[in-house]
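Recall the central idea of this unit: under ordinary conditions, the amino acid sequence of a chain determines the structure it adopts. In this exercise we apply that idea directly, starting from the sequence alone.
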Amino acid sequence: MNVSGTLDINGIELTNKEVTVTYTPSSSIKSYTYEVFKDGTTYLKETVSQFRSSKIVLDKSGKYNIVVTTIDKKNNSEVLESGFYNLDLDAPTTTCNKSSFNVYLNSDASLLKDEILNCIKANDKQDGNLENNVVINMDDLNTSNLGMNLITYSVTDSAGNTTSKSLPIYVVEDNRMTLLGFRFGLALIAIFMIFWFIRYKRSVRLEKRFSKYSVEAVYDRRVSFVDSIMKLYSSIINKTSTVLKKSVVIKKYSKKYDKYISLYKGIYNDSISFIAVKIFSSIIFLLFAILSKTLQSDILHLYECLLPLLIGFFVPDIVYISKYKLHKNRLENDLLQAIIIMNNAFKSGRSIEQAIELVTKELDGPIAEEFKKMHLELSFGLSVDVVFGRFAKRVELEEVSYLTASLSILNKTGGNIIKVFTSIEKTLFNKKKLRLELASLTGGSKLVVYMLIFIPILFVVSISLINPTYFEGFYTTTVGFILMSIIIVIYIAYIFCVRKIMKVRM
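Accordingly, the structure predicted from this sequence is:
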């Protein structure tokens, strides 16, 4: 190697500084080419055709080696190869999952050290995970005075690169017992309000049942606490609805709630009120989230605000849909009884108006309310076709549509109404029988499906309660957040597909 020249540095195992390698050719060298390899690939290549030294500057992180090919005056070639120069010029990166920490007044500062270490993530391009190398300086933390203290934490890689950051620590008063008492008080108030509301609803139901047997219903003219709350709630909803009515977009969006108006007669005046309830629910959920964070002496982040708002906005939909389904199921179940009563009335020679009136007397619930409307409309002089057409539009049942069409044909062409109602009665009976058989056959499968849907949620909740930091990677890192989003989308798609598969239309 000395015949062709010298490389003044033969290799460096690891360094955090720039390296300059000098190649000095001998007098017998006519020309030479040096090639610099970085991490196994060509980084720099240059040919020198005159007698001079070359300084090769290595100023970026990586593993280098240099190959020099020389040609002497007799056109003989020789290859010189250096050792490896391992450069690590990049400092480690550190992140903390929390922007600040709280410590109680006059408490042991060392108890906070482990909590901070669990929240710090440290990585290096060459060394990888350096969380075990994190050093925290707790000397600057003074827990004897209220206020903010700044502590520093640092991490050093194997090359000697160091990253240091400051972290605010707030010294707060120890109000854990006060918060515990406050939470316990809130729980008691909630239980008391639920109990009071149940008693209130029961008393209202009893009063309605007994009022028809008394000469005059007895009303308590005193305004109860629940009545006051409901009055305030109604006032808020009405004022919000007045404001929302000015928006054309909201008016169009609210039309999907028109079918629920009959279920909340006397409570909500129009479909706009349902949107007002959804907005009110979002605000309530947000207030509870803020209260929870306040009790924890923590700050509510943006995503933590959006989540309660979204949940609160769609929770009323679950209530509306559930109540509407129960209403339709009861209508379907009671419709068969109504058809039987009407058919028997026709067999005894009664008119259709008398048959409808008989149904209102014999039955109760939603079907009785609908038949009362029909009887009232007939008394106003509306035709049977119109009355049953309105009935079919309100209940949105296939059987009622079929009944309406049959009655319309009978009025125009004539026929035996008893045969029509007997046919409808038989159809409804067979359909109800088939529905019950189907429910018994698919009950086990539905139970398994529901278990498969709720087991992942139960698993996540259980693990989070046992180890709150177990799923931190999913919402503290970009990759984790993307994976979590994909998992949620797949889970929702799974629920949607399962519901479509299990849904049987009759």
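The domain at 93-174 is CATH 2.60.40.10 (Immunoglobulin-like).
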